[in-house]
Amino acid sequence: IVKALRFRLPHRPFLRPAWMIRIGLFLYDHIGKRVTLPSSHMVNLRKSGIFKKDIKKGFEYSDCWADDARLVLMNIMAAKQKGAEVRNYCRVVSAENKEGLWHVTILNEITGERFSRKSKALVNAAGPWVKQFFDDGLQEVSPRNICLVKGSHIVVPKIHDEEYAYILQNSDDRIVFVIPYLDDFSIVGTTDVKFKGDPRRVEISTEEVDYLIEVVNEHFVKQISKDEIVWSYSGVRPLCDDESDSPQAITRDYTLELQHESGKAPLLSIFGGKLTTYRKLAETAMTHLAPFFPSLGGKWTMHDVLPGGDFNCSREQLAKNLLHNYPWLGIKTAKRYINQYGTRAWMLLEDVLSESDMGNVLGEGVYAREIDYLIKHEFVKTVEDVLWRRTKLGLYLIEEHQQAIDKYIQTKLLVNIEPLNG
Ligand SMILES: Cc1cc2nc3c(=O)[nH]c(=O)nc-3n(C[C@H](O)[C@H](O)[C@H](O)COP(=O)(O)OP(=O)(O)OC[C@H]3O[C@@H](n4cnc5c(N)ncnc54)[C@H](O)[C@@H]3O)c2cc1C
């Protein structure tokens, strides 16, 4: 779920001088104690022929690409393996601190049922809702303010055939990435727009679409238009409010606030943060909680692998191994399984002797067996979970097949209701 990727920065002299970028990349290469990834260097961009004539050279450096949705999911799966109780679509509506424990009330947003749990500590990691949870769930004043900044992406058929991600500098001092996506597409993003309202209702605006298209069209020979957008998505960054004037200037750093009164259970709240630093943030969170849990062990996450990540060969080799065991899968599905599930693909296919054991074909390359696996092991409750959160099949499947998956999930979940207590 994390891949090394070379990023190329086309140089436009009227924006930033080359010496400044070179110094920046020198520091980037050396401060980060780069071990495995290749270093940065200058590149001739004329050769590729994909850029407009005024873009002649650029810089290349290493970074990584991550499947954010699956990264989050795999951490949740790892927590479950270690004994956590996981409840999807369940919202903590209130929490009361009494008799040395948190008494937490939870609402199942699908069934409408409420249930409760007790805990020795509470972590408010509600992201964009961290402050709202203080207001509504705890009815207390939040120790910090949060600034919500919307970011949107568009997905279009691939703009170029190169294996590089491009980082486009814009005259408003912002950058926009054009990243190769799932063999067939390019992701273009992101934007920075201050956001007010319910983060659940966030969506891309016409201005953001126009902005992203304009930045791409200023650089590439191939021009894109609104009609080519196959998907767009938006998110809200929960940033620590440092009273900066512009959304892109607000710090991307995080702050943890521990609140604890004698005889009461502690509350740890997380303001801000990035995916890149999530493991470090989690370690800091545990350091804050350690005094309340004397038997807690030391740090261990650095060398632990996430579920499905226990392999030492390339993912191409792993796909070949899977295809060798299950030749009827076809290389496309074998690759998709490996990219999504890693070695857990073998768990999905456990006891499968022939294609007929996979159940009905619900869409191209989608067997009922995969949906069963997703319901059983990856907390799937809705068709959107399958199409956009666990996989990106939504980009490929026609409406009729999406409906077939929806119907299948509904039928399966009716006979498989989880008990709330116990
Ligand atoms: C457009 C965009 C681009 C980004 N790009 C990058 C990037 O390139 N690199 C990077 O490192 N980071 C990036 N980020 C930041 C990264 O996505 C966030 O830092 C990260 O998602 C924050 O994680 P979180 O767990 O704190 O919050 P979230 O991911 O928002 O998770 C909070 C969760 O809490 C749940 N929740 C809320 N209230 C309750 C409640 N009462 N009860 C139960 N659950 C609740 C929500 O449903 C949600 O699932 C980007 C963010 C955006 C929006």
Question: Features of this protein?
Answer:
25% strand, binds flavin-adenine dinucleotide, 29% helix, 422 residues, globular, Helicase, Ruva Protein, domain 3
How would you explain this protein's 3D organization?
This protein is 29% helix and 25% strand. The strands form 4 sheets. Strands 1, 2, 3, 8, 9, 10, 11, 12 and 13 form a 9-stranded mixed β-sheet that branches. A 3-stranded antiparallel β-sheet has the order 4-5-6. A 3-stranded mixed β-sheet has the order 7-15-14, with helices on one face. It is globular and about 70 Å long. It has 422 residues and is of the alpha+beta class. Strand 9 (165-169) and strand 10 (175-181) form a beta hairpin. The longest helix has 16 residues, at 399-414. It has 3 domains: 2-68 and 147-240, D-Amino Acid Oxidase, subunit A, domain 2 (D-Amino Acid Oxidase, Chain A, domain 2); 87-145 and 249-303, FAD/NAD(P)-binding domain, CATH 3.50.50.60; 315-414, Orthogonal Bundle (Helicase, Ruva Protein, domain 3). It contains 11 helices and 17 strands. It starts with a strand and ends in an 8-residue tail after the last helix. Bound molecules: flavin-adenine dinucleotide (FAD). The site of flavin-adenine dinucleotide (FAD) has 19 residues, from strand 4, helix 3 and strand 13. The site of flavin-adenine dinucleotide has 19 residues, from strand 4, helix 3 and strand 13.
